[in-house]
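Blinded run. Sample ID left blank on purpose so nobody reads anything into the name before looking at the predicted structure. Input follows.
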Amino acid sequence: MITPKIISKGILRALASIVLVTLLLYFFYQIQAVLIYLIVALILTLIGYPILDFFMKRLKFNNTFATIATVFIFVVTISGFIMMFIPLILNQGANLSLLNTAEIEKSTIQLVNQITVFLENHHIDSSQMLKEVDLSSKLNFDLIPNFLNALLGTLSSFGMGLASVLFITFFLLKDRRSFLITARKLIPDNHEDQVLNSIEKINKLLSRYFIGLVIQLFIVFILYLIILLIFGIPNAIVIAFLCAVLNVIPYIGPLIASILAAILTMLANLGTDFQSEILPTTIYVLIGFWIVQIIDNNLSQPIIFSKSVSSHPLEIFLVILIAGFLFGVLGMIIAVPLFTILKVVAKEFFPENKAIQLLTKNI
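Blinded prediction complete.
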């Protein structure tokens, strides 16, 4: 029989749970920087496992020296990247971010006027439409300098985060066996084999995925840079870098990158004739970017998404689409790794299910 005392205890228990969850979420919010360091360190650890195995199995290094050598490769690679690209990015990014907002607005209005003249010369009356829209009052011209200033601020505090990430990565690589032993003690005996097999498969698949993703972004960056340099676009390195990073967002990222490149190309050529200079150059840059996307979509992405995580391209497309609708851009970015983890766990714990057998037949 349900008594008032039982009801009151249930209410108190529910309130205590809500308070506990709220405090836990608040705690995670306060240490979000540490959580980001952990996630990045885990990604580096997954990328580093094949390198570590190479040093231990092929070169016969012991665990400590193999770990030091792996982290050293990370340090050299990141340092080389910084020395080669970051000074140029900071220099060119500063040039863009220090632009006066009023100057950006003036340049944009000038560009719109040139487009209007071009359309009128082709018997398209758009001046009245542009006046009614009142573009200058609706665009936020602080967006570009604010974004670039935020990027520069992030790069300036990069050192401390990098040191923390490398420190965490070192111990995740070095003491991975200790972590597995600890995990064995915490895992119930009847599920130990399933959990350990899941961890091993997830580690293998995600290692291949993240290594492939880094290679893909580097290839896209180089191709974007070549196109921008061919057409003499100022700030080519920072534009190519930003557009390549946007490719992390599946499907939508390349579209945003193309729009960003087109806008910056037009602004870079401002002052020249729209019909003979600005429009053709912008079209050529867009065609170049689309060719890069065709190469990426038909070469790089199928290799990474299909072969590295053993999933069909249509399957990956639907997963990314659903994740995008549910969780936005962040969902699209983490969709493939998370889906891979869920597939591996499902195969280990529910191997007899026919739907799971169909989805995980290549794992």
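Unblinding after everyone has recorded impressions. The radius of gyration is 26 Å.
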